[in-house]
Amino acid sequence: MLSLLDHSELAPIVDRIDRGERLGEEDAVRLFATRDLNALGALADRANRRRNGMRASYIVNRYINYSNYCILSCQFCAFSRKRRDADGFELSIDQMVEKARQALSLGITELHIVGGLHPSLPFSHYTGFLRALKALDSRLQLKCFTAIEILHLAWLAKKSVRDTLQELKDAGLESLTGGGAEIFRKEIRQKIARGKESAEEYLDVHRTWHGLGGRSTCTMLYGHLESHADRVHHLSLLRGLQDETGGFTGFIPLPYQPENNGIPVRHAPTGAEQLRTLAVARLFLDNFDHVTAYWIGMGMKLAQIGLSYGADDLHGTIVEEHIFHMAGAQSPQLQTEQALVRAIREAGRTPVQRNTFYEPIRTWDSDPSQASGQGRLVSETGQAISGT
Q1: Where are the alpha helices (DSSP H) in the chain?
Q2: What's residue 19's pLDDT?
Q3: Could you say which of 19, 31, 156, 222 has the lowest number of CB atoms within 10 Å?
Q4: How far is residue 236's CA from residue 225's CA, in Å, rounded to a whole number?
């Protein structure tokens, strides 16, 4: 902390943070540029502790990617396939229900469901699988669809975005995912995701959903062609919408995976750059309660360190993940609840199981001797569906 304060160009930023004042975009660019990563992390950690104390959360959830057939061809995406491709897939509603039924025995509280923009499935298919999944257990929270999927579904339904979202909500949708934000700067977006929705369209989908009383997460894909200033511009637009609606539950920065796609980036973001991005996000997004260190993209060990750089959440058990792994991620496909509890404890935090809306379900003690993840339950504020 002292070494950061000694930098004359950064001392005013630290003073404003200490006074609780909002940082400007120039301040955030300066924070990205500092070489004192440890001091930056200490500032972000202090800001996080003021908001969340020593608690760090996880969710017991399952991912379902219902199909990777997609009418778009985003340059960064290693997930999408065309009908002619041998490794394309499409799950039936019965297959999705069976995956969910198996996951319920693990105690999941959330299904996280996204897919490509399928060229031929009707709108009724999507409302159908929402209703079928909700019928398994009414307490199962359905977090589904990116903003571009919603725009695609509105086109299929021949309805407005608002009416489409309302119909999906009536069928069981409880939260939108934050995927598809990528980078909002138009010039960069055109290079990595030509043909995808604009920043304005992404934000308007979430604005409309929030106006219906819904909540959602938001993301940023970083470490490809964008500059630090582009990242800050992206964060600023998210912060502005949060000022307007208060509908975002958390922010999830996603490190780019360069292995299997068309963007000419040789290396994934370094560990230092991933920690730096978490820290700046925590300091700049002063109207967000939660920042996630996404273990799928970061790896668990670096995500643990992220809990000391402004993050207060590790995401979830996942069970099965295709998008990052098809892009080249080397992380496991899943984490057990015990492994998540243990990772949080090892980082010196108190593990908290949360639901889709970051509301606590239960809080574990932080006794490091209980490294197996089977430690004493010290409070309970909700009820998991089964098996936990």
Answers
A1: 2-5, 11-18, 25-33, 37-52, 93-104, 123-136, 147-157, 161-171, 186-192, 199-211, 228-245, 271-284, 295-298, 300-306, 323-327, 337-346
A2: 86
A3: 19
A4: 19
pLDDT in tens, 158-177: 999 999 999 999 999 999 99
Q: Count CB atoms within 10 A of the CB of residue 84.
A: 6
Residue 43: per-residue pLDDT: 93
350 bridge partner residues? 55
Upper half-sphere CA count for residue 195 (Cβ side, 13 Å) = 10
DSSP string, 329-344: --S-S---HHHHHHHH
Residue boundaries of the structural domains of the chain = 2-47, 53-380
Contact call for residues 130 and 142 (beta carbons, < 8 A): yes
The rounded radius of gyration (Å) of the Cα atoms in the chain is 20
Q: Are 59 and 108 in contact (CB under 8 A)?
A: no
Q: Is residue 41 a contact partner of residue 274, using CB atoms and an 8 Å limit? A: no
Residue 77 — very low, low, confident or very high, per pLDDT cuts 50/70/90?
low
In this predicted structure, what is the pLDDT of residue 165?
98
State the first-to-last Cα distance of the chain, in angstroms, to the nearest integer: 40
Residue 222: both structure tokens together = 């970083």
Pick the CATH number of 53-380 from 1.10.468.10, 1.20.120.530, 3.20.20.70, 3.30.230.10: 3.20.20.70
Which of 33-37, 61-65, 269-273, 374-378 is the least confident region? 374-378
